[in-house]
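Thread: quick sanity check before group meeting

JM: Hey all, I'm pulling together slides for Thursday and realized we never actually wrote out the predicted structure for the chain we discussed last week. Dropping the sequence here so it's in one place. If anyone has concerns about the input, flag it before I start.
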Amino acid sequence: MWPIPRRCLHLSGKILRKSAGFIFLGKNFKGSCKEFEEKFAAYLGVAYAFGISSARKGLVLVLEALGVSLEDEIIVDNLNYYAIPSVIQSLGIKIVFVDVDPKTASIDLEQLAKRITSKTKAVIVTHLFGRVSNMDKFIDLVKTNNLFLIEDCAQALGAEYNGKKAGSFGDAALFSFGLGKDLMCFGGGMITVADSAVAGAIKKRMIRSYAPSRVVIVKEIIKHIMAMLFSKRIVFIIFVFPLMKLFYLYKNINLLDLLFGEDPERVSESFLLTSDNKLSDFQAAVGLEQLSFIDQKNQKRIVNSKIINQELADLSIILDSFEDGNIYSAYKILVTDKNNFRKKMLLRGIDTQREDIHACSRLSFIDDDNDYPVSEDLSNKLVGIPNYFCLTEAQVRGIAKEVRSILNEA
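JM (edit): ok, ran it. Output follows.
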C-alpha cells in the first residue's frame, strides 16, 4: 500500500481561477456573500445566516446579540476545541465546564443539569467529529431553565439529528470554513440565527464591520494551496513522506504538525474587538463553489467509516457512532499511547492527525481547578485516522488493518 496522507485537500480549477483573479486582477466578486448566506440558510433550513471572518468573531457577535453580560455564566463541554472557552474567557465571562459521557464524548446531560445556576445565561453544545448531540434532551433542558442554546457546528456541516441539520436547533449556531474543514473558504465562517430580533442585532453590528484585508486572505490562500500540494498523492509519496519519516526518526517530530498545527493559546481581546467581522465576497464565492458538493463528500466518508466500524468493531476502541445522521468529519479511535501509535502508523505509511480536541480545563490559560476525569482520559487517548472522500475501499481497509496490527502488538 502506498503512503496515505492525513487529509486530502481539493481545490477545484474554478476555485483556483477565482483565487488567481482575486490575487492578480483584484476581482471582488460583489454580491457573492449575500448569495452564499441565502443558500447556506436554505441548506440548513434556518431563517438567517451571516458570513463572518472567523468563528471566534462570530461567537462574540452572538453573545452580544443574546445580551450575555459579564455577570453571566456560560456552560461549555470540557472536551472541546480550545477556541470556544478561550473567547469566553477573553471577554471576561465566567466559563462553567461540564464533563462528557465516556461512550459518546458528548456533554453529559445529567452533569449539565447540576451545573445550571441562577447566573447561567447560555449553554454551548459542540457537535464533535460530525455527530449531533441528543438535541431533544438538550432543548428540553434549556427551555425548562430559560437559557439560550448555541451550537458549535465547526465539525458538523451536514450532520443531522432526527432529520434536522446541525445548526437548526438552537438560538444561534457557529460554523467554521478554515483549513481542513469540509467547506473551506480560506478562513471565515457562518452564523445561523433563529430569532428575528437576534438577527437584527447582528445585522446592525455587521453594517459597521468590514472583511479581512487582501494580505490576510492571500496568506490563507498560500497556506491552503501548500497543504493541498502536500496531500497530493505523487508529491506526498516522493517528497513529503520521506521527509516526515526522517523528522520522526531523528527528531521525533511530525513535520506536518510543525507546519500546519495550531497550539492552544488565549485569544487576545484586541483581536476579538476589531471590526473585521465580515466574510469577504471572494471567500463567499469560494464557498458557493463547494456548498453543492457537501453531501457528496459526507456520504463518501460515511461509507468509509462503516467499513472501519466493521473492521475494528471487536477492539473496543471506537466511540458510540451515532450512525443516524453522523457525517464522520473525523474518525476517532482510542489508544493508550497515542504518540507511539502515531509514530508506528507513520512508519507503516499512514499519517494521522494531531489531536486538537482537549480537556480544556487543563489548558494553561484557563482558570479551573475542578476535575473532569472522562474528558481528561479521552483527550489522552483520542487519535484521528485518515477518513476522506478520495480514499479507495482498499485504502480504507488497509488503514484498519494497520491499526489492528499495531494494537495487537501492544
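AS: nice. Residues 156 and 323 are 13 Å apart (CA to CA). The mean pLDDT is 94.
JM: adding both to the slides.
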